[in-house]
């Protein structure tokens, strides 16, 4: 049995994989594959509608917000959001907490003045900056809620009087959020939503159409909203499996229920990291991510042997990103707590042997 701690694309529930495979062979008893029907067919329109309805229900999206599925990954959103939100000659604020925020900043600079009001680069992005002020003339404040590579997470969101824009690629649907606090939320699908290929965007309608820019249709949120995520052919399979996965989450009791499980999973692993003298965490304790647990060994020479030992126990995908080293265990929604227990046992056994 494999325990998949990979950072993304990553584990999805086994039952979702099974249902997805049925859909590939015979979608809803149509005698056709989900891959061969028209995206304009009522059967697929129903899939898109249900996926969007589930996002709204699971996150309690209030009236006045639109939910769309796009393509291009979270990386395209780095540019698209600035294109749509930042008027010529205006300024936006960014908090830099890692690789993904840095990329978001670089892309946004193509569209206006970007004020990096806080950064944790001085300590290899191992903490969440807490001391900053957002300039009154800033159009929005952008941050990355979970830093997939460095293993830090905002446990309290910045206060920017509603003008918050957030990359939630690696922690959306892992915990309860108040969508009304945000102007825009975006996330690549391939962690807690579904397979790679779709990108979820939740945007407050009233902030759109104010830049005075002419925006190419594919990059224009308003056009994508009025076309109901079907301006062009959507990533049908990714949307379909995302819908199945959101159904799974709803059946489990929704975000509130999964949050409790996620807290228990993270607690179990961090407790072992802190207890076991061979290991240590890499981030400020108060900013530790519940989704991306980064840790190293006191003796770096033991890292390769531990990686091998953990792999023998079925724990895969735990090699850390090269910018942090050591290990990263991603504890996304679909990862059962039993998998975390297997990793913790491997750490304990490895300690006994070393
Ligand atoms: N933001 C975050 C927080 C991520 O973790 C990732 C991918 N791991 C990205 C953005 C980039 O996403 P994509 O590959 O969908 O462009």
From TrEMBL:
UniProt cross-references to InterPro entries, sorted A to Z: Aminotrans_V_dom, Aminotrans_V_PyrdxlP_BS, Pser_aminoTfrase, PyrdxlP-dep_Trfase, PyrdxlP-dep_Trfase_major, PyrdxlP-dep_Trfase_small
Subcellular localization, as worded in the UniProt entry: Cytoplasm
Pfam families xref list: Aminotran_5
Keywords from the named record: Amino-acid biosynthesis, Aminotransferase, Cytoplasm, Pyridoxal phosphate, Pyridoxine biosynthesis, Serine biosynthesis, Transferase
Requisite cofactors: pyridoxal 5'-phosphate
Sites bearing N6-(pyridoxal phosphate)lysine, chain numbering: 191
Pathway: Cofactor biosynthesis; pyridoxine 5'-phosphate biosynthesis; pyridoxine 5'-phosphate from D-erythrose 4-phosphate: step 3/5; Amino-acid biosynthesis; L-serine biosynthesis; L-serine from 3-phospho-D-glycerate: step 2/3
Residues that bind pyridoxal 5'-phosphate: 74-75, 100, 148, 167, 190, 232-233
Record flagged with keyword Signal: no
GO MF term (any one): O-phospho-L-serine:2-oxoglutarate aminotransferase activity
EC number: 2.6.1.52
Matching PANTHER family: PHOSPHOSERINE AMINOTRANSFERASE (PTHR43247)
Protein name listed in UniProt: Phosphoserine aminotransferase
């Amino acid at each position: 049995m494999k325990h998949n701690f990979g950072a993304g694309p990553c584990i999805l529930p086994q039952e979702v994989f099974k249902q997805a495979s049925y859909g590939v062979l015979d979608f809803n008893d149509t005698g056709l594959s989900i891959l061969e029907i028209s995206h304009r067919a009522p059967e697929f329109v129903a899939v898109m509608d249900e996926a969007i309805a589930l996002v709204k229900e699971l996150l309690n999206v209030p009236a006045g917000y639109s939910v769309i599925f796009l393509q291009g990954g979270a990386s395209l959103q780095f540019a698209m959001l600035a294109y749509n939100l930042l008027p010529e000659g205006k300024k936006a604020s960014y908090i830099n907490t890692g690789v993904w925020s840095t990329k978001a900043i670089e892309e946004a600079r193509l569209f206006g003045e970007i004020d990096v009001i806080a950064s944790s680069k001085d300590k290899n992005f191992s903490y969440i900056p807490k001391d900053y002020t957002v300039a009154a003339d800033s159009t929005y404040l952008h941050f990355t809620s979970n830093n997939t590579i460095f293993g830090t997470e905002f446990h309290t969101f910045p206060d920017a009087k509603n003008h918050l824009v957030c990359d939630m690629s690696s922690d959306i649907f892992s915990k309860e959020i108040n969508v009304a606090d945000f102007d825009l939320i975006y996330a690549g699908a391939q962690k807690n939503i579904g397979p790679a290929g779709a990108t979820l965007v939740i945007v407050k309608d009233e902030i759109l159409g104010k830049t005075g820019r002419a925006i190419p249709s594919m990059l224009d949120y308003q056009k994508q909203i009025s076309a109901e995520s079907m301006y062009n052919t959507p990533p049908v399979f990714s949307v379909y499996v995302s819908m199945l996965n959101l159904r799974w989450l709803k059946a489990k009791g929704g975000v509130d229920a999964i949050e409790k499980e996620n807290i228990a999973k993270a607690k179990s692993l961090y407790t072992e990291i802190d207890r076991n003298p061979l290991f240590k965490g890499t981030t400020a304790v108060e900013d530790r991510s519940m989704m991306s647990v980064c840790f190293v060994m006191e003796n770096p020479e033991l890292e390769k042997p531990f990686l091998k030992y953990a792999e023998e126990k079925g724990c895969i995908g735990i090699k850390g990103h090269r910018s942090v080293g050591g290990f990263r265990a991603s504890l996304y929604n679909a990862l059962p707590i039993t998998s975390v227990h297997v990793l913790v046992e491997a750490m304990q056994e490895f300690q006994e042997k070393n």
